[in-house]
Amino acid sequence: MKTPALASLLLLCPALVLAQQEVDRAATQPTQNNQLERVSVTRTQTDTDLRRREPIAKQLYGREELDKYGDTQLSDVLKRLPGINVSGGQLRMRGLGGAYTQILVNGEPAPPGFSLDNLNPAQVERLEVTKAPTADQSAQAIAGTLNIILKDAPRVVQKDLRIGTTYSSEKPVINAGFTYGDRIVGGLGFVLPISVYQWNFVNETDSDRLRDAGATHLTSNGWDRAHGRGFNMSPRLNWKLGDDETLTLQGFFVTNQFRNEGENTTEILQSTPGQSVLPPSVLDSTHNRGTFSAQRVNLQYNNRFGEDRRIELRAGVGSGGADFNYDFYGRNQAGTPVIERVTAGDNSNRNATLSGKYSQYAGEAHTVTVGGELERRTRDETRSTVETDLVTNTTKPLLPGVEGLPFNAVITRTAAYAQDEWEINKQWSAYFGVRQEQIKTVSEGAGSEFNSTSKVTTPLLHLNFKPDPKGRDLIRGSLTRSYKAPDVQQLIARPTINTDYPVTGPNVVVNTESTPDRIGNPNLKPELATGLDLAYESYLPAGGLVSIGVFHRSITNLIRTDRPRLQAVSWAPTQRWVITQVNLSKATTQGLELEVKGRAAELFPSLFEPTTALSLRASLNFYRSSVGDIPGPNNRLEGQQPWQFNFGADYRMKSLPISMGFSAQIAPNFDVQQSALTSQESLASRSLDAFAAMQLSKEDSVRLSVNGLLQPKQGTLVTYASLPDYNLNERKPVAWWAMNWEHKF
């Protein structure tokens, strides 16, 4: 922790020195005359202003935050925001796993398989982060919701070109984006953002494993490389039919081709013959290649009838899919090929949505809204794994009778809601709502037939109080119900076996308690959470913010992986150790959230001159959780770190058109007791990002940035309560450097 803190302070020092030099230069420069000039100040609404005016607690981030570091992946923007971290491409709020956080695109669920790395920030208008659900959006948001608002048609013509290059390892890659928007005749406006991008990352990996009740000790080291290219665009057409009537057509298209490859050398330090199955090779090579695509088109109609009634209608269709081919190639100590395992699969998704809501003023203080939603989504999937024994030149399926058989699922979601926004008086306002949502999943396919229906009613209450009716400060409170439904993969009863312990052939050996097979559970119920949120927000005169908040979630029907059980199974002639997910009784999580941001002169008036163009920001979050059916200590929710600290600064020079800044993120190592048998330790994480931008002319600017400096090894250590076995996996991430040029036509 000391290293990144010291490095960040060292990076901040040049900004502070430059700021002081600018102040000194301004103080010593002689004035030409004593005549006072008239100064006209026009203040536009900032993200903080918009946040203060929201009827519920919501954090808003616009173009300033999206453009600051010249990021080409939205995940890099998100990891710097308060209370958010991104792990393995998954968005996590309040330290909770990705499944607890809802991701929306223009208010609708993101396409299946969508990754934050697939979207360029240049295509985004703003980000909306809410920690407590609202009635007009799905309540599948125990940790919170991220709503990605795509770029809107501009009021004046906009033509921007961005070209950049990024280097992480081996060779640089390129990215480019072009945005063209305009208002044309007849009330028509459009915007066409297009992005192309590449990526190339290489990481070093290490592992140390003790298994088979201590009989086998293995160490390995290697590397993995991920590279590929992609394309996305999000065209939008706005048609102003009248003063209060609009029609909007929004498209969203993304496609990419990915490649992953790696090598891993395993050394057998200890082995007891007859008590374990050794790895099939000492040198493993892997190759994975595939494609992903998603397309969506939405039509939205808005009309305001007079001054007191509004209607919004939406309809959308979408499709997408992915395919992959994963090869595992193994050689023995002599370098002779001994085994080849190929896993291939593809899936396709189609969805259609309909929604509508109607709002009306009721008296002078109430705005009542009612609405409904209907979504139907289908998924078709095939997957097979075959092994080729290169010694005997024979090929066989990994799981006979299961591999290659198709699977499909139909998910139907319906919802109805009502809400009332009530301006009680100059100090108090309230938001009441109730939402009823049903998700029905029907699946067909060998080993995966099931029918699951979940119904959840979510009452919601949000309160705002202004201690001073004429002031800017707010006290916010929320009492809400939210939930997390099990996904299709958790419900499917198809097994996934541990490949070190085959179920067919001459060397069949029963797997161990620490190397179990996996199987889904079609009887899983949705997790339900009752939440309380309280926050005090102080809005400073010059646009700064100080926020202190606490939250609590009480969760029932928590979904957790059960301890391994030895049982007779349909996919093997012998008993196998198997794990599955079950609903436990309950869990609780709570936390303290602190956030400060603003101009340095406003936050520390005794240290900085009012003209110093230095902005500071920091957030500190503490999290605690407890799972009722898991013995302590450390029986916390999966992946939730005890605390997280983000801090940074931005500085703009006066004498030169140069701005610079940095952002740092720190989290400690921590243990999670996953079950009565297993415990997992996650290693500490820290990262430092920095940028410097220069305005070359009115039309051109260039930006240099680095992401992921000072990162230590990341990974996990799994240990077992009744066994000497353990599994340590580590990965050394690599920082990447970028240079971007932007031209405005």
Strand percentage lies at over 45%
Q: Could you give the distance between the termini?
A: 45 Å
CATH homologous superfamily annotation = TonB-dependent receptor, beta-barrel domain
CATH topology grouping:
Maltoporin, Chain A
CATH class category: Mainly Beta
Give the proportion of residues in helices: under 10%
Task: Please work out how many helical segments DSSP would assign.
Answer: 6
Please state the second-level CATH architecture: Beta Barrel
Beta strands, count: 41
- Poorly predicted tracts of residues: 1-42
Protein name: TonB-dependent receptor plug domain-containing protein
InterPro entries: Beta-barrel_TonB, Beta-barrel_TonB_sf, Plug_dom, Plug_dom_sf, TonB-dep_rcpt-like
Family: Belongs to the TonB-dependent receptor family.
Subcellular location: Cell outer membrane
